Amino acid sequence: MVREEVAGSTQTLQWKCVESRVDSKRLYYGRFILSPLRKGQADTVGIALRRALLGEIEGTCITRAKFGSVPHEYSTIAGIEESVQEILLNLKEIVLRSNLYGVRDASICVKGPRYITAQDIILPPSVEIVDMAQPIANLTEPIDFYIELQIKRDRGYHTELRKNSQDGSYPIDAVSMPVRNVNYSIFSCGNGNEKHEILFLEIWTNGSLTPKEALYEASRNLIDLFLSFLHAEEESTSFEENKNRFTPPLLTFQKKNKLI
Fold this sequence. Notes:
One of its GO terms (cellular component) is plastid. The protein has helices at about 40-55, 85-90, 210-245, and strands at about 15-25, 25-35, 60-65, 95-100, 105-110, 115, 120, 125-130, 135-140, 145-160, 170, 175, 180-190, 195-205.
């Protein structure tokens, strides 16, 4: 490998948060800048970070609900204003915050008439609800209402084919994506050899983590991804060095005289 020296800015790369606000409990916004970057580097960093922010950050959500003896998701339950499908869609929108791994159980157990919101969910330890006021259903009659829920921490968007359930258990499309949107833009400044780029990065999250936390986690995931290549190169280099240092042992052969 041939290494060439490239003249560039001696300034250290720096991240800086230039704007941060909370629009609602489920919408956080942050704007960051990274500079100085050489020409072309801003696009490289911006594309990689955007993909990591949208697809590589884990989130917690409700993935399954069990109602009891409900024949299909389009059924209606006496004393409840919403259909089963509408309740499933409302549960899908619940934003959770946690560090759990694997599947955990939760439940809702209330008696009507009353409105059911996210604060009525009985959660396992270490799981929090971001917005307690998120609606789930409206009980219009004095009935007992019970739902078993499953909670899982994952990444990305997962769908499961719904079919008529014998035990009233239905999957919920899992949206494990805490980052709602990411935009980046590039600003060029300087003249001649001193020309450099500034990367502007905008991040919107669902409130389960801040844009700054999302940026940190995305950066860490990218670093962990590329570390494997560095380790592979170090192992390959070590193997080549050891191979060059290896001296085969001197083999001696003893000649035997045969008596005839």
